[in-house]
Amino acid sequence: MGGLVLAAVADIHAPKNVGLFKKALSELLASRGEPAIVLLVGDLVNKNDYSQMGAVLEVLGDVECPIFACFGNEEYEESRDEYLSYGRVKWLDDESTVLELDGLKIGLVGSRGSLDRPTWWQRTHLPGIRALYKRRVKLIDGLLAKMRADVVVVMTHYAPTYRTLVGERERLWPEMACRAFEEVIERRAPHLWLHGHAHKATVLEARLWDTLVVNVSLPARKAIYTADLNELARRERRPRGLEAFM
Helix 129-146 crosses helix 180-188 at what angle (to 10 degrees)? Predict the structure, then answer.
């Protein structure tokens, strides 16, 4: 028990998986104690029912650490203000922040992420979505280029690689991930890249160069993912390419 623990989970889809979330949190608290930070990696509610954020936070009731979140495809853009009204959660929407935990500077980047191929619904209802996804790759790359921290963590709801989608239908992988982020990972070398969305994945972790990519989807993992921040801080990061140092 103890240590400086990061805890992360996605796809609670409240009210659907609230019971599983409660069980997983209880197991985490029993085995590791209270985490130093909690990251909620999108699809916290089902079909934009933002009132269910109350149920998610009720489960987290006795946890006093900072809570950060990114939006998923189930949190609709038009309801952004309703989600932001839950002041206990600090949302990162194509944004970054740095906080200090026990003397360590923790850099966070949060975003819905991008897709190689927008879904049929997105193509039909969201004009300009392809261009948005391309801009988002550049935006996150820029945020990481400016990041100065002991530990750098990215959370995007969609996956940054196909490697953690194994178990999902392969023909749908382009609608679940964006492989352009692999170049960002190689260039910027964040310590961790967390994602959700892949409920049926059987490969939950993959190492890309010096970055560990982790699927923290609750339906896939049946538990809350944890990492030791002090251990991450000791790992060497080796960004590739001259542009990584510009």
Answer: 10
pLDDT in tens, 176-219: 999 999 999 999 999 999 999 999 999 999 999 999 999 999 99
**Where do the H-state alpha helices sit in 33-159?**
53-59, 80-84, 120-125, 129-146
C-alpha neighbours within 13 Å on the C-beta side of residue 234: 6
Q: Using a cut of 0.85, tell me whether the model's pTM lies above it.
A: yes
Confirm if 157 and 10 have CB atoms less than 8 A apart.
yes
> How close are the terminal C-alpha atoms of the chain, in Å?
40
Query: Could you tell me which of 36, 9, 21 has the C-alpha nearest to residue 150?
Result: 36
3-class DSSP assignment, residue 50: helix
CB-based contact 45:16 (threshold 8 Å): no
Confidence of residue 237 (pLDDT cuts 50, 70, 90): confident
**Domains of the chain, first to last:** 5-234 (3.60.21.10)
Max distance between CA atoms of the chain, in angstroms, equals 49
Q: What are phi and psi of 212, to 5 degrees?
A: -95, 120
